[in-house]
Design a protein that fits this description.
This protein is of the alpha/beta class. The protein is built from 14 helices and 18 strands.
Length: 424
Amino acid sequence: MIRAGIIGATGYAGGELVRLLAGHKEVEVVWFGSRSYQEIPYTNVYQNLFQIVEGTCGEKVMEALADDVDVIFTATPQGFCAGQISETVLEKAKVIDLSADFRLKEAETYEKWYKIQQKSPELLQEAVYGLCEWNREHIRSARLIANPGCYPTCSLMAILPLVKNGLIVPETLIIDAKSGTSGAGRTEKIDNLYCEVNENMKAYGVTTHRHTPEIEEQLSLVAGEKVCVNFTPHLVPMNRGILVTAYASLKQGVTEEMVREAYDSCYNSEKFVRVLRTGICPQTKWVEGSNYVDVGFQIDQRTNRIVILGAMDNLVKGAAGQAIQNMNLMFGLDETEGLQSRCFLRSYSRKKEEKDGKRRGRTMIRAMMIEDYEGVYKLWKQTKGFGIRSIDDSREGLERFLRRNPTTSIVAEEEGEIVGSILC
């Protein structure tokens, strides 16, 4: 069993790491690092994990933690990991850093955009950028992983196949991205208060967002030339999710078939990337709670430009899920282990009229029980499994899911028949 320690376990990304690793067959979380909740039981912070995980929050320097674990996840602010990591740490444990400390290969670039000193410049060349689908072989042998940022992950997964295959003019790229508020972290900020976010949308970090050089560096590596982009993020009033809409000019003679072939050649064998059918645009609800990235595109024949779309969960594929995917590769495990949840299940099927023309009875919403399995499974089959399946659709799988999430799964019932369900 792999022993894992999480520094920053009580933030949103850290909480997702704990939640996902609780379902991992090969990992045990033995350390819940937190400065804010020292000596407090972890489930006092995240009650959804009550009776699922055990442990108390504490604080320990990385070098001491490395004596007790096989892998360290740092879900911490910029500067923390670079300030504590050392050769001694890396000799004892593998490190997966969810901050930006090792994403950029030049210390000067990091210091320019993040306005803090790079405290471990000697490790920048060793650190492997953990975009799993594009850097898998280097990840397998790495000691230190720079887990990509949320916006870069979604942007790069959507754009890189076109750059790799030389189908777009890179310098024409414009990236418009929108994220839920969890992307800003769990710390108290006026801009993130409910009254500030609700019924409001806004751009931020316009021309200055710190993910810009990360996106440009990775695009440049694949393009074989320096790529400069316009990147503008927006905050939207939802909890989680990222939607990227990017625009670029197509090179002369590029057809829709060539674009489709570029995506298929890159992603046909990839578990966590779904290239949607023509005319289908990704939505954040389709990937919520999962490690999937949905990608789509539309060609504007009038302007000879392509509209590139991507959607993913910023806390899973954009943070914790990708970190676990990296860990699986580093330890030679099945890459999908602990990440097989499709998405937060949302299915609803209701016939407005009975066969005799009469309306159905009143709908009752109640907590889901294991006794509901047959009705829920029947409903899943009716919806043909599109974006609605859980980790395991057997009766035992549902029972495990309900035991881990006892208060968040519900059914809609009409006259004794289950007509809707939500698992989350």
